[in-house]
Amino acid sequence: LWVEQAQYEHDQFVARMRERGVEVFHLQDLLAEALAAGDLARYGAAHRRLRRLPNATTRLALALSRRPRLRARALRTLTADPAFFGRILGIHARTLPPRALGPGGALRILYALTGTLRP
Question: I need a surface site. Which of 50, 83, 86, 94 has the fewest CB within 10 A?
Fold first, then answer.
C-alpha cells in the first residue's frame, strides 16, 4: 500500500535528520503530551513556535514574487554564492542555527533586498 510506503519513507527521513543532530517534532506527540498534562495551551505554543520560521519564509517568498526587481536582486545574490544560499536553506530547514549565516550574513541579505548597503 502507498500509505505504508509513505510512512516508511517518512520514518527513514526522520532517522536521517536525527542522525545529523536535528531535533524532530511530531505534532501528534506534542498534542498527546499536552492532553496528558491537561494543558492544550502548551500544544498551541509549541505549534506556533514550530511554524514561525516557515511562515516567515513563505511571507518573504510571496513578497518577492510580487516584486520582480527585488526578486532579481535576491536571486543574483543567492546564485553568486551557493554556499551562502545553502546556509539559508539549512536555517529554514532547522538543520543549521541562525548564526550559520556568519558575520555579516544578515547584512548581505539586507543588501540583496534593498541595494542600499555594500556587501
Answer: 83
Could you say which DSSP state residue 116 is in?
-
Cell of 26: 511530531
Residue pair 102/114 in contact (Cβ under 8 Å)? The answer is no
Residue 90: name the closest of 34, 36, 16, 22 by CA.
Answer: 22
- Write out 11-79 in H/E/C secondary structure: HHHHHHHHHCCCCCCCHHHHHHHHHHHCCHHHHHHHHHHHHHHHHHHHHHHHHHHCCHHHHHHHHHHHH
Q: 85, 86, 69: which is closest to 77 by C-alpha?
A: 85
Look up the pTM and report it: 0.53
| d(C-alpha 106, C-alpha 119), whole Å | 10
Query: Which residue type is seen at 54?
Result: P
Distances (CA, A) of 81 to 7, 13, 91: 36, 27, 16
